[in-house]
Amino acid sequence: MTAIRKVVISAFGDPSNIHLVDDILPPAPASYAQIRILYSGFSGADINMRLGQYPFQRKAPFTPGYCFVGTIHSLPPSSTPPPNLSIGDTVACLSVYDAQATFVNIPTKHLIPVPHGLDLQKATALILDWNTAYGMVMHTARVSAGQTVFIHGCSGAVGSALLSLCKLQGASVYGTCSEKNFAAIRRIGATPFTYADKAWIPAMRALGGADIVFDALGFESWDESYSILSGTGTLLGYGGNLKTLTGQPGGGGLVIWPTFKLLARNLMFWDGRRTRFYYIDRGQRTFESDLKALFALLGEGKIEVLVKRVWEMEEVREAHRGINRTEGVGSFVYQGWGGGGVGRGEERMEVANGLIGWRVQSCVYEDSE
């Protein structure tokens, strides 16, 4: 049995429902490994899950954490581990849940060895953010030299990865982002626009339209993005973040119906424009090979993986409050605890589904608003 600390979202709603909890993790069962978490990812999926707006998500209470890099702490003595895994190895995983903890039990089939010498913060960003971008650029959109690409949220975690990979393919890149990040986006080699004033719409039409538009916003943004496609362009949706980002009610799960509308445009067979929707899954045939390709690109210095901020786990509530206010380009990462206390103060909480009586080590948080 291993004493652990983990993040628990006790109920859907605002960041006050996020807690740091002491718990006991049982030994890893057969075909599992127990992992000591070094870094875990933090993204818009965490926000939507906390709001209860992520499609087909778990009910509260649950521990978030979509991906991680960690070391193998233990393996079941009664099972034979895969030949490429040993205690002490550094591994990456798209866990979907449970990674925001000190330790976690994970099926060994989902663990991918991290090559020696890689920056582990950047390796963490590759698992979800960059692998999502890589799948869209290389397999779904098949971006090639000379194409015109437009990316919404091009300073964000997936957006900045899309930008870098499209530039690597030889495309001309345009996109929307906060004006405070314009200079950084120009340095990477793209032309930025502000989303809200809609100046990007006539500007892209004047260029003859985009060959590919990547749009994680969804809802009415997909209609606008479709309007700036070239006659044979492709709109690739991969999220529904518009309502969450703008504070409107009814995001997340309601993106299912806009997705049907997005894909229904393909029924207009006389129109040369096409639409696609992309969703990353660790069961995809290309998931592991894509991540290994990204590890190689990082190791060879062919991509620059930007990490916007590394949060401590004690700052989990601050991270949720500040994700859309943090200046910079790239991904967010949580750093594993390693040692020391979780925070000051204690409270007792009663939550359904097995959390009754757990002691929550609650940090003293200050609102950053």
Main attributes of the structure:
17 strands; alpha/beta; 10 helices; 6-stranded parallel beta sheet; disordered C terminus; 26% helix; 7-stranded mixed beta sheet; 369 residues
Main β-sheet description: 7 strands, mixed
Radius of gyration: 21 Å
What class would the helix/strand composition place it in? Answer: alpha/beta
| Average pLDDT over all residues | 86
Q: What is the N-to-C order of secondary-structure elements (H for helix, E for strand)?
A: EEEHEEEEHEHEHEHEHEHHEHEHEEE
Strand content: 25-35%
Low-confidence stretches: 338-369
Terminal Cα span: 40 Å
How many DSSP-defined strands?
17
Helical proportion? 25-40%
What order do the helices and strands come in, and which of them pair?
Elements: E1 2-9, E2 18-25, E3 32-42, H1 44-51, E4 67-74, E5 90-94, E6 103-107, E7 112-113, H2 120-140, E8 148-152, H3 157-168, E9 172-176, H4 182-188, E10 191-193, H5 200-206, E11 210-215, H6 220-227, E12 229-237, H7 242-246, H8 256-264, E13 274-277, H9 287-299, E14 307-312, H10 316-322, E15 331-335, E16 346-348, E17 359-361
Parallel strand pairs: 8-9, 8-11, 9-10, 11-12, 12-13, 14-15
Antiparallel strand pairs: 1-2, 3-4, 3-6, 3-15, 4-5, 5-7, 16-17
Q: Outline of this structure?
A:
The protein has 369 residues and is α/β, with parallel strands linked by helices. The chain has 10 helices and 17 strands. The C terminus is likely disordered.
